[in-house]
Automatic annotation (TrEMBL):
This is DUF3086 domain-containing protein. Pfam families: DUF3086. Residues 1-18 have a biased composition (Polar residues). The keyword ATP-binding does not apply. The lineage of its organism: Bacteria, Bacillati, Cyanobacteriota, Cyanophyceae, Gomontiellales. InterPro entries: DUF3086 (IPR021437). Keywords: Coiled coil.
C-alpha cells in the first residue's frame, strides 16, 4: 500500500496468478484524442518540450510495469478518514493511463493562452522559414542558370582557343616551310657563287695574291741579305786605259742626231730616239703580267694582266703610238682592265700631269667605269672629278671643252671612249692620247641591253 492508501500495482503485476491483459490501442487513442490539440502546441514549442518530463512508451509485454509519476497528496483536513479500500481491488493498466493523462491535462490546461501564443509564433516562424526557403530556392535556380552559362562560356572559350592555336600553328608551319625553302635557295646560291668565284678571274687573282705576298716577303728579305753581302765584297781595280785623242769628224745635218723633244704635247713611243721610254713601257707591262702587286699604291695596277690583255696594251702603245682604237674584249670589265693598265703606265711616265677623261653615253656605264677603276687602281671617291683625277663625261662636246682647257694648262689629256659610242667626234682625233674600244661587228649592241 502507498502512503495515500492505494495498493501498489507492481506487486499485483508481478503476481504469477494474474493473467496478462491485452490493451486495445483504439481505446487508448480515443482517450488521448481530447487533448490532441494542446499536445500539438506543446511539441511545436521548443521551450515547453524541454521542461516536460519524458513519457515512457507502452511496453509490448504486459509483464513490464510502466512507471507512473508520483501524484502529490492533497493537503490534510480535519475531515474523517475514508474507509480503506478492500485489498482485493487493485488498479489496472487502464487506470494508470487515465491517471497519467489527467496529470498531463492538469499541467497543460492552466496555460491555454501561452499555447495560443506559441502556436502563432510557430506559425510566423514557419512563414519566415517558408519565405526564406523560397528565396533560397530562387537563388539556387539563378545560380544554377549562371553556372550553366559560365560552363557554356568556358566551353566556347576552349573551342575558340583551340581554333586560334590550330590556326597559329598552321601559319607558323607554313612560314617555317617558306623560310626553309628560302634558306635552301640561299645556300644553293652561296655554293654557286663560291664555285664561280673560285673559277673566275677575281677569285683566282685573290688566291694568287695571297701566295705572292708571302713569296714577296721572302724575296725582299733574301735580296736585302744579298745586298749586304755584295757591299762587303772587294773587287780589284782595273788598270787605267790609255785614251787616244782623235779629231772628231765634222757633223753634217744628215748624220747629226736630232735632240729628243721634251714637249709633252706630242709623245712618241716607236722612234729609235725614244727607246728609253719604250723600255719603261715594256718593263711596266711585263711587271703587271708576271709579278702583279695587289697591294700597290694608288694609280698602280693591282690586277694581273693576262697575255691577251698585255698584247692589247702593247699594240696600242707601239703599233698605234698611243692614238687608236682597240677591238673590245666582249666585256666592259676586261676593257676597263686594259684601260687601267694604260693609265698606270702613263701615270709612271707623266705623273700628275696626266688627266684621264672617260666618255660613255649612259650614267650606268659611267658607274661601271668608276667601280672598275676603283678596283684596278685602288682609287677612292676624291680621285674622280676635279683637277687631278679621272673625269667622266656623257656629252662629247663637254669633253672637248675640258680637253682644250687641259691642253691650255700644258697638261697631258688621255681620252678613253667606251664601246657604246657608235660615232667618234673628229675633234677628239686631234689630241695626242686617246683610246677607243671598237664594238664587235659580229655582236649587235643595244643601247638598253648590253653585254658586260
Amino acid at each position: 500500500m502507498n502512503s495515500d492508501g492505494t495498493a501498489n500495482p507492481k506487486s499485483d503485476l508481478k503476481s504469477p496468478n494474474r493473467s496478462p491483459e491485452i490493451i486495445d490501442v483504439s481505446v487508448v487513442e480515443e482517450e488521448i484524442s481530447p487533448v490532441s490539440e494542446p499536445l500539438e502546441d506543446v511539441w511545436n514549442n521548443n521551450d515547453e518540450v524541454k521542461t516536460q518530463p519524458p513519457v515512457t512508451p507502452v511496453a509490448e509485454e504486459p509483464q513490464v510495469a510502466t512507471p507512473t509519476p508520483a501524484i502529490p497528496s492533497p493537503p490534510k483536513t480535519s475531515a474523517p478518514p475514508e474507509p480503506p479500500e478492500p485489498a482485493a481491488q487493485t488498479p489496472t493498466l487502464d487506470d494508470n493511463w487515465a491517471v497519467l493523462l489527467d496529470e498531463i491535462g492538469q499541467e497543460l490546461d492552466p496555460e491555454p493562452e501561452a499555447s495560443i501564443n506559441s502556436s502563432e509564433a510557430a506559425t510566423a516562424k514557419m512563414t519566415n522559414l517558408l519565405r526564406t526557403e523560397s528565396q533560397i530556392a530562387a537563388e539556387i535556380v539563378k545560380l544554377r542558370a549562371t553556372q550553366a552559362q559560365l560552363q557554356q562560356q568556358i566551353i566556347d572559350t576552349q573551342t575558340s582557343f583551340g581554333h586560334i592555336i590550330q590556326t597559329s600553328v598552321t601559319e607558323l608551319e607554313q612560314r617555317r616551310q617558306k623560310l626553309q625553302i628560302s634558306v635552301e635557295q640561299l645556300e644553293r646560291r652561296r655554293d654557286r657563287l663560291k664555285e664561280e668565284i673560285s673559277k673566275s678571274f677575281a677569285g683566282a687573282s685573290q688566291d694568287v695574291a695571297i701566295r705572292l705576298q708571302g713569296f714577296k716577303d721572302y724575296l725582299v728579305g733574301s735580296l736585302q741579305d744579298l745586298v749586304v753581302i755584295a757591299e762587303e765584297i772587294e773587287f780589284p781595280q782595273p788598270p787605267p786605259a790609255q785614251i787616244r785623242l782623235q779629231t772628231p769628224l765634222p757633223k753634217t745635218p744628215a748624220t747629226q742626231p736630232q735632240p729628243a723633244s721634251k714637249d709633252r704635247s706630242s709623245p712618241q713611243f716607236t722612234e729609235p730616239a725614244f727607246k728609253a721610254t719604250a723600255g719603261k713601257v715594256r718593263a711596266a707591262i711585263d711587271r703587271y703580267r708576271s709579278a702583279p702587286d695587289y697591294y700597290a699604291p694608288t694609280w698602280q695596277l693591282r690586277r694581273t694582266l693576262e697575255a691577251v690583255h698585255a698584247d692589247k696594251v702593247s699594240d696600242w702603245f707601239f703599233t698605234k703610238d698611243g692614238r687608236g682604237a682597240v677591238r673590245t674584249m666582249g666585256s666592259r670589265l676586261q676593257n676597263i682592265l686594259i684601260a687601267a693598265a694604260a693609265v698606270s703606265v702613263l701615270r709612271e711616265l707623266y705623273g700628275d700631269y696626266l688627266r684621264t677623261l672617260v666618255l660613255a653615253n649612259l650614267p650606268e656605264r659611267l658607274g661601271d667605269w668608276r667601280r672598275g677603276f676603283q678596283d684596278c687602281l685602288g682609287l677612292s671617291k676624291p680621285d674622280f672629278g676635279g683637277n687631278g683625277g679621272i673625269i667622266l663625261f656623257e656629252d662629247p662636246e663637254a669633253l672637248i671643252q675640258k680637253v682644250d682647257r687641259i691642253v691650255a694648262n700644258k697638261e697631258m689629256p688621255f681620252i678613253i671612249i667606251d664601246n657604246s659610242e657608235g660615232q667618234i667626234s673628229l675633234s677628239i682625233l686631234q689630241y695626242p692620247l686617246w683610246l677607243a674600244f671598237a664594238p664587235d661587228p659580229d655582236r649587235q649592241i643595244d643601247d638598253f641591253r648590253e653585254y658586260r
